[in-house]
Amino acid sequence: MTVLLALLRMYSRHTGVSIAEQIYEILTHFRIANNFGYAIADNASENTACLDHLSELLSITLDSRCVMCMGHVINLVAQECLWGSDINAFEEELTNITIEEFELRNWQRHGPIGKLHNLIRYATHSSKQRDLLDTIQRS
Known about the structure:
Oligomer: single chain
Helix content: 55-70%
Number of domains: 2
Radius of gyration: 26 Å
Number of strands: 2
Largest sheet: 2 strands, parallel
Strand order of the largest sheet: 1-2
């Protein structure tokens, strides 16, 4: 176990080539380099460089063996949906609004579903509004 921990510790610069060489060292130490299957990575430049160099070290083609990390992809899509392409403008916009205003504005971006959400939220926001809604439903 100590050998594995020592091998996993990054002992040089965090570059693609350095990472690839350390991964290769671990694979050869445990004699599993021939069993290398797939790599899961995001689109960071260090990962691309790492996989390119690792494919040279292992003498295999990793192009078809690289899988994008689904968690990372979902995170990027969610950020784009929530904040758009300009996160700084979104954060500046948030500085002077209440949580309720934020939720209403956020739901408005979802078109008709968002408008329906806001209408239901408005109708059930206070006990007085809920009581009025109950009287309408009973008649």
